User: What shape does this take?
Amino acid sequence: MTQPLIGIIMGSDSDLPTMKEAIAVCTEFDVDCEVAIVSAHRTPERMVEYAKSAHQRGIKVIIAGAGGAAHLPGMVAALTPLPVIGVPVPSRHLQGVDSLYSIVQMPAGIPVATVAIGNAKNAGLLAVQILATYNSELLQQVQAYRAALKATVIEKQAQLDELGYQKYLSNL
Assistant: This one.
């Protein structure tokens, strides 16, 4: 394994089912990542150490998933010079709306890029795109990924044209 470039952290192991999608994106693009449970509330010293040392350890982007009060992304952003992408993890009672509000409402000067509730895949893609700004091979992979998305939509449209909407719907 080479030096991890993306740090994927979460407040609890219960966030891992959501955050696994960011890990999968890193794997798909062959970008090494480290994965850690770093709770802002239960292990605040660990969170501070992680955030302050990440750039010294070669991490370039941090993806932080959190549910409920969701302080992890914002607190890490306050402690690191690296870009932080927040993933609001769906919660049992408020379905992640509480997490979204907590992550997205950062004060001026301490930004956290925030993706949709539960959308760790987009967080992974955004982290890869950030890395691609200075890595031409990774940029080519991102462009190929986007071309594949386009091809999928065009293929679906061709099927819709051929089958008609009712038969297309029955095949979904």
